[in-house]
Design a protein that fits this description.
By secondary structure, this protein is an alpha+beta fold. It has one domain: Aminopeptidase (3-Layer(aba) Sandwich). Strands 1-2-3-4-5-7-6 form a seven-stranded mixed sheet, sandwiched between helices. Helix 1 crosses helix 3. It binds coenzyme A.
Length: 165
């Protein structure tokens, strides 16, 4: 598997849209709607490009054998201190070790290049795949954020996992 992470560009739109327009992504990342219109994907991509230019975030497109397989990055970046990690893998590429490789890469970048002390991830308490992935990459559970998000008029719990340098 030829896996690469690189900066997003406007040319990524068609393939990114194909991958992001997915029920499972929406279920676990409710900010990404389903169905996700081409206009919304365009705005997501535009923001990813802009935030990278401004240095506010580190957003990556995940490519496998030349095709877009997902996206990942570090957000809420506070220089030489901390950041929140995020990622999603397209449905054709899940369960193949891609998430683990990407999370390890982004974590390493955060510690070695950005000199962070803390990287954390928040996830819906129902998201087993994400929780297991964080555990496999040596993130430790710090707690439960009770009723932290509102989804379809229900308040649901989130978990917070972190890795410290
Ligand atoms: C969560 C997600 C990123 C995992 O990526 P992935 O590439 O499928 O994960 P990997 O194949 O690298 O698996 C790594 C570990 O995660 C866990 N895992 C992956 N898929 C799982 C599933 N469906 N159920 C339970 N655990 C799972 C396993 O522990 C696995 O390790 P193992 O193979 O040694 O058992 C992916 O499922 C995804 O993008 N889901 C939709 C969006 C999302 O939930 N994003 C995260 C929001 S916080």
């Amino acid at each position: 598997m030829n896996l690469k992470l690189r900066n997003p560009t406007e040319k990524d739109l068609p393939q990114l849209h194909k991958q992001i327009n997915d029920k499972e992504i929406h279920k676990n990342i409710p900010e990404i709607p389903y169905p996700c219109s081409l206009k919304i994907t365009k705005n997501i991509l535009k923001d990813m490009i802009k935030e990278n230019k401004e240095g506010k975030k580190k957003n990556f497109i995940i490519k496998i054998n030349g095709n877009i397989a997902g996206a990942a990055g570090l957000t809420k970046l506070s220089k030489k201190h901390k950041a929140e990690v995020w990622l999603w893998i397209g449905k054709d590429y899940r369960g193949k070790g891609v998430g683990r490789k990407v999370l390890k890469f982004v974590t390493k970048l955060g510690f070695e290049k950005l000199k962070l002390k803390r990287i954390y991830g928040t996830l819906l308490a129902s998201n087993r795949a994400s929780e297991n992935l964080l555990k496999k990459c040596e993130y430790k559970k710090e707690g439960t954020l009770k009723k932290n998000v509102k989804i379809k008029n229900k308040f649901v719990d989130e978990l917070i996992y972190a890795i410290i340098k």
